[in-house]
Design brief:
The complex is a heterodimer. By secondary structure, chain A is an alpha+beta fold. Chain A has one helix and three strands. Chain B has one domain. The chains are: A alpha+beta, B alpha+beta. Chains A and B meet through helix 1, strand 2 and strand 3 of A and strand 1 and helix 2 of B.
Chain lengths: 79, 140
């Protein structure tokens, strides 16, 4: 099992996306980091298995998610 | 591949929410939830999760975290992405920027996802046809 994320052109470790609490905030942070730099983020999943809880709490059921392949993310101009 | 349809008059358009962070996504990905496998394809702004059977789609849906539908829909809308769930090459549900949930979605409790009854019926028809083919092969 392996999982990796890499920046295609510029990857400056000192620049960190501030902690996000919601998925939209995370996306906006990602957009601000990527846009205007001609960069892309590539996620490589190699037979990665994750136990995903159905909800929070100790009694949650878990579903097994398996991922294999690549996701490339780039930005587009705002309308 | 069936893609998009016309917009009924009494539907909510997710595009009313501004896309604050429009992204483009390219995938070469296979996912499996509790053994139910799906291929994830994309055209940049639109992603397609392709299930081989209705059973796989149902099994995968049962493995989703509670409340993920609203979070996922918000994420897709902010990023101006649309996610289509397909079974046997028919679109059965749509989420995100291009989703147009209407009365059917609300009555099924699927809002903010758009449920496409035509796609569901088409997938069921193809599933039955495939089952008949299997039985026919067994008998011949």
């Amino acid at each position: 099992m392996a999982w990796g994320k890499r920046m295609a052109e510029s990857d400056t470790p000192d620049e960190r996306i501030e902690e996000s609490t919601t998925w939209p905030d995370l996306a906006v942070g990602l957009y601000d980091r990527l846009t205007g730099r001609g960069t892309e983020i590539i996620y490589d999943f190699e037979d990665m298995t994750v136990q995903v809880p159905s909800t929070t709490g100790e009694d949650a059921d878990h579903a097994e998610w398996h991922l294999d392949g690549t996701v490339r993310i780039t930005t587009r101009e705002r309308d | 591949m069936e893609r998009s349809g016309s917009r009924p008059a009494n539907v909510t358009d997710q595009r009313a929410t501004p896309a604050r962070a429009p992204l483009s996504v390219a995938t070469d990905l296979t996912i499996a939830v509790n053994g139910a496998r799906a291929e994830v394809e994309s055209t940049g702004e639109r992603l397609f999760v392709e299930f081989r059977s209705i059973g796989d789609a149902i099994r995968a849906a049962r493995g989703r975290p509670a409340g993920i539908g609203t979070d996922l829909s918000e994420l897709l809308t902010v990023t101006d992405l649309t996610l289509e769930f397909r079974v046997r090459d028919r679109t059965v549900a749509v989420a995100g920027a291009g989703a147009r949930p209407g009365a059917v979605s609300r009555s099924l409790g699927a809002d903010p996802f758009e449920i496409r009854l035509g796609g569901v019926l088409g997938a069921i028809g193809r599933e039955l046809s495939a089952a008949i083919d299997v039985v026919s092969d067994l008998l011949n």
